[in-house]
Model the fold of this input.
Amino acid sequence: MHGRITRLQCISAHRRVYTQRNDGYSDQHMYRAKITGTGSCVPERVLTNADFETMVDTSDEWITARTGIKERHVAAVGESSSTFALRAAENALAMAGCDAGELDRIIVATVTPDTPTPSVGCILQDRLGAVKAASFDISAGCTGFLYALSLGDSLIRSGMCEKILVIGVETLSKITDYQDRTTCVLFGDGAGSVVLERSEGDRGILSTHLYSDGSYGKLLYVPGGGSAMPASHASVDGRAHYLKMDGNRVFKIAVKSLEEAALKALEHNGVTGDDIDLLVPHQANDRIIQAIAKRLNLPPEKVFVNIHKYGNTSSASVPIALDEANRQNRIRENGLILLDAFGSGFTWGSALIRW
Ligand code: UT7
Done:
């Protein structure tokens, strides 16, 4: 009899487990994933707009007016994505008061891993001493952190994991063509990280919405270095290992997509822009950020912007901004935080968090 009651309780608990659709979650859940720590790290070396004036045909005026960027941090010789990811992870773990040995997963979003294999996740697993963490990388362009966050959220909601380290890291300077003025002024390096922990309260990640459309792949891509075009003298001479972007076309689709993902998060949770405490968007272009803020009717104090300091750091941009906002006390307990990102693939998505 006792055994039967236990079995029924199990079945009923099982039924309450969330169901994930490809565009979000149902509201039913057993657990929530709560962010208990944030961390970030950028390289010490800085390239200013004045530096670029000596490298290519550009000006501080053009870069500032068209992008909002004033400077960006770039890796020194010998530094790679794991260098910054490790420090960002240590900062987040310290804030959470979490020992790396307690982690169930390490999920790293990056398009610039140290090596094609092993993953940055496995390098961190070793360096952090995360003895029981299954660790891996995912690639989803500048939306990578939101993809990783959504996956971590799913693993916690399902009951499979209790503690997960999620990281977005890039060393874009290694795939940037410093002879191409249309791209080189845009990108920077760095890492941001969060610790996700199982929670049974109302606070935590309320929803994630992810999208992709591969038909736009070649508007923002790196042609060489993969199995389609392995490294060769010809590929190096042809500068095929550098990022190529049709910026103007990307810009227009980015604005629409970011708007779509943000509005979906609001609609799904039955809230409006007025309810949002802080928008933490991908930092690709200040004009894009201001367009989204206008669409959501958000005043400047509700929009976190740090693109002037770091440029576009792809997967790292949202978690670096989130960590800075957190450490600058821009996020209040129980406040609603909206994350919104767009990137190569194309990929885009949003997350709504009750802090
Ligand atoms: O993170 C993933 C997603 N990425 C994005 O969302 C980036 C989206 N795109 C953008 O942010 C913008 O499109 C850019 C900042 C990349 C470019 O701004 P734009 O207003 O779209 O400029 P444009 O590409 O239409 O170029 C306008 C002019 C061109 O000259 P002409 O043809 O009009 O003579 C460019 O050659 O600006 C020129 N230009 C520059 N001039 C000075 C392009 N780059 C530079 C430069 N300095 N660095």
